[in-house]
Structure formats: C-alpha cells, structure tokens
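Researcher: Please predict.
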Amino acid sequence: ASFTKDARALAHNGYVYLAGGVGTGGFAQNSVGYSRINADGTLAGWNFTSSMTVARSGFALGVCNGYLVAASGPYANTEMAPIGSSGELGPWRTDQLSEPEGRSDCGSAWFNNRLYITGGDYAGAPQKTVEYAAMQAAGPLGNYLTSPTSLVNRMNHGAIAWNGYLYVIGGHTDVANALLTASVNYTSINP
C-alpha cells in the first residue's frame, strides 16, 4: 500500500487496514489496503480492496457491526463497507444521513456502537464540539447529534473512548498548525 499523510489505519479481527490519505501529487485518495497480521506480528503483504466512494484524508475510520466505516474528512457524509471473512471489503455505500459539519483533521472514537467525531477543521477554523451517531443493527448510522463540550478548539489530535469516558488529546489549536496543545480533555459518555 502506498499512502502518505493523513491516512487512517486500524486493526480488526487479525487484519490491518489502511485507508485514504494524501498521496503523490498532494491529492486525497480513496484507496483501501489490508494485510493479514501473522502470529509473529509481521504483515502478510498488502492487498487492495474496494475503494471508498470519495477520496478522504484526515477523517474518522472505525469498525462497527461488521462494517468498516469512514466519516468526515472533510465531507459531511458517512460511508461503510461490509468486512468479509478473509479481510476483504464488500462494496461501499454512502449513508443517507449527513453529519452536521464535514470536518478534516478530526479525531474519532467508538463506544457502545456510537461514532464520536471530535474537533477538527471546519470552514477554516478548529472546532471544539463533538458529533456523534449510533450504528443501527442493520448497518447504517442513526441521526447525527452535536454535543457542546468544554473541549479546547483543536485539530490533528487524538481521541479515544474508554470505560464510559471520551478523551481528546493534544493537537493544534489553529489552522496554520503553529499552536500546539498538550492538554487532555475528557467527558463522560452517556449510554
């Protein structure tokens, strides 16, 4: 797989996935590569699978209910592809429900079948709100909601969910990527 800046990666069920990012020439990519993780930790070699419907960089990527899910970055939509037993992806489909704001350079986390998109760049400014939606049993996400938070405006940051809490860590507080923050904010997640 040949991806560079702002690609997203995750491991699921013995496979690693690498999606999107900015490739040669500075253009966002829609490619998705995957590799089986061997017992000794090495990778078996990269394969390409179904491409996302739009090119994305700096987006949210996760796995829920047997689907690889991509959201935002900077599109205000969500798409998902079923994961096959050998790691390959089925066809991507775009969810009919849109996010309130398409954000690039956002953080994301999953908790209790909910996707949380934190901060990011929207309309040239770092954000501090959290958008979230629940994954339905049949696959699509429910309506996105926006939650006001006490987060610091930030982008290019990390986000994790653990034990009922959402953590937002580090990042930039300006779109020029000059002002860094080492702060960690957290809030409880309502079930």
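Model: Residues 37 and 164 are 29 Å apart (CA to CA).
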